[in-house]
Amino acid sequence: MAGDASANAFDAWIRALESRHLADLEFAEVSRALRALSSAYVERRSRLREGAALSGAGKRAAFALFYGPLHFLVVQHIARQLAESPAGSGFATIVDLGCGTGAAGAAWATASSQSVKVIGIDLHPWALAEAEHTYRHFGVSARTRRGDIAREPWPKGPAAFVAAFTINEIAERSRQEMLTRLLERGRRGDRILVIEPIAGSAAPWWNAWRTEFERSGGRADEWRFAVELPAIVEKLDRAAGLNHRELKARSLWIHTRQPTPERESLRSSPR
In sequence order, which residues have a C-beta less than 8 Å from that of residue 225 and are 6 or more positions away? Predict the structure, then answer.
């Protein structure tokens, strides 16, 4: 999607989110829910696996209105940087693992220079319904599927896989299964993109994954970039005592082009 068209679609998406999620809730209710949600992410991450992030209309609205747009901006920025090389393009299907509101899949699809379809997989019915809104809004051909991302069948054909802010929210056993499956798809030539917060405490497993990705011919990056937040996101940011004027994330990326068991790893490129 062209830059101006993508920006216009993003702005219209934000307006639609605000209209839908503030139709029956006051701003103060959503900002209180955001503070609780932020606390869960920082202090009680184990509760996220129990559905704490989406328990109640206020938290669901906060997740959609605040974290959805932030995740979109982060994934789109990273995808556009990766697209500077041939490795970042040339695929027809994006599998949005733990799709949530669909922000990651939509962001990568709109950053692509060609038409792609998205398959969104998540356990939560509300998230899947929200993802359908998102994909449809951006004009992305998509279908959603309810299931466990570690065990749900994945498309057999060539694809790009994105797991944005989701691997840390699954159980350790499932996380190990995901690592095995993702590396196998990477060895087959698929593109694999994993994104998580930079804070080390948020993902204690990250270094082990980084080692395995680099052994498989992948790379690790850290990203920091200034951004102008949408008005509603900035308002929520201030109300919750947060500061996202600079967005930060780290990523793991594989695209080996040829199926290969071993390849010299690439040095990470901090941004």
Answer: 77, 246, 247, 271
269: region left, alpha or beta (phi > 0 left; psi from -120 to 50 alpha): beta
Cα distance between residue 211 and residue 253, in whole Å: 12
Residue 268 in domain:
no
CATH, residue 37: 3.40.50.150
Entry pTM: 0.89
Number of domains in the chain: 1
Structure tokens given for 82? 């990766």
pLDDT per residue as tens digits for the range 143-177: 999 999 999 999 998 999 999 999 998 999 999 99
Identify the H or E element spanning 119.
Answer: strand 117-122
The string of DSSP letters for 36-57 reads HHHHHHHH-GGGGGGTGGGSSH
